[in-house]
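Kindly inspect both lines:
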Amino acid sequence: MIRVMVVDDSAFMRKALSSMLESDPGIKVVDTAKNGAEAVEKVASVCPDIVTMDIEMPVMDGLEALNHIMAKTPVPVVMVSSLTVEGAKVTLQALELGAVDFIPKNISELSINIMNVKNVLIEKIKQIGGRRLVRPALVKNRVTHMPALPMVPGGVDIVAIGTSTGGPKTLQQIIPALPKDLPVPVLIAQHMPANFTGPFAERLNQLSLITVKEAEDGEPVRPGVAYVAPGGGHMKVAKRAVTSIISITDATHQNFIYKPSVDALMSSVALLYSRKALGIILTGMGNDGLQGLAELKKAGGRVIAQNEETCVIYGMPKAVVTAGIADKILPAEDIPGEIINSVRGG
């Protein structure tokens, strides 16, 4: 039984979230709180398995409450976030402070997709609440001394990364650890809403030696740049003359469940780069990436999966490992070194 605390200043939201969660027999809402100060006090006494936390609240907001909880009584926290650009920036700050994921605040406006929202919420709560809290160390400062990385025969020409829940923190371990002179591009499909991927790319860029940006349709793929797929669409690579370019396609009428789709990215990379591609699957719920990475593996590329111990949710890497297509299973902190070795042909 997963024991949940719901924190929100809106009585409607407290009731809506509680009703959704308790429709599953494996979840019990053990308490609620109407502001951050009350949440900090109740988390310490009730000891829930997981907390849903609103951001904008009176007395004490969600960020301050999260800070107190992570310092005193660490527990997995899922933020309830506005899907605006400003909401995205605050939510990303919460993820850096220790929150494991977020859900949309405007549940009342999602009546058409309410069953899908409910099912995703329940699945996230069950998977996150059933695991110990994973707290990876974030890169606080840029690394200034890294070895030169000349491209050698046998090395990869592109790195493609797919991730979902827990991905923002894991990517903040991996991308800032890559050297400025990385001679290959990095393509990232992170499940995120449209307003989140731009601010997320900006934050990664601030932390990293390589350039990180939100990908744009038609732009050339350049070495030493990491491209974050824009939310709401799918990112692929395509060929234009002798240059590889980014292709952003509308997700509305495509058969991929997740946006941006890891499968869509990996399939295009497999087709264009075959054995010169490195595909990496990180923490996340479901099996997005399995089909695309199977194609990449069949084309002769290499596949790395994050290990269970460092994942917030082991769904996406587990699907790849179970299928037998992972060449290596590594903790998050070892993946940057593996990328460097792959570029060098090691």
The mean pLDDT is 89. The CA atoms of residues 245 and 346 lie 27 Å apart.
